[in-house]
Design a protein that fits this description.
With 119 residues, the protein is mostly helical. 63% of the residues lie in helices and 0% in strands. The protein is elongated and about 75 Å long.
Length: 119
């Protein structure tokens, strides 16, 4: 049985795409877009240096900075600190301790036994 049938990805819209061609495809599409713009006589330098574009870019930049500072920064920093404190640092300590890992199916460390902490 195909493993995709077990998880429900057997529909054509969920077909997995080869991820190895993503970067090259993006580069080719950017080159084609630049050629199309050149064909129609659009100069990107004049567009980017225009006051309208500069004003719109400043608006987008200010909105992104405001979104980060007012809404996203606090939860992202909290999640990062949580990850470092409770996942990364203990994992590094356990790896550097040199002690062998305890298998999860070890009867001495079953569901009712505390998990040993390496100091």
């Amino acid at each position: 049985m195909n493993p995709r049938h077990k998880i429900g990805y057997n529909y054509p819209m969920f077909k997995l795409v080869n991820s190895n061609s993503g970067l090259i495809k993006a580069i080719v599409l950017i080159i084609i877009a630049l050629l199309i713009l050149a064909y129609f006589g659009l100069n990107l330098r004049s567009i980017v240096n225009s006051p309208t574009f500069q004003d719109n870019w400043a608006l987008i930049r200010d909105a992104a900075v405001s979104l980060w500072n007012n809404y996203l920064k606090a939860p992202v920093v909290y999640a990062w600190n949580f990850f470092i404190t409770y996942v990364w640092d203990p994992a590094i300590r356990n790896l550097q301790s040199g002690k062998p890992a305890v298998p999860l199916d070890d009867p001495a460390h079953g569901p009712n036994q505390p998990i040993p902490v390496v100091q």
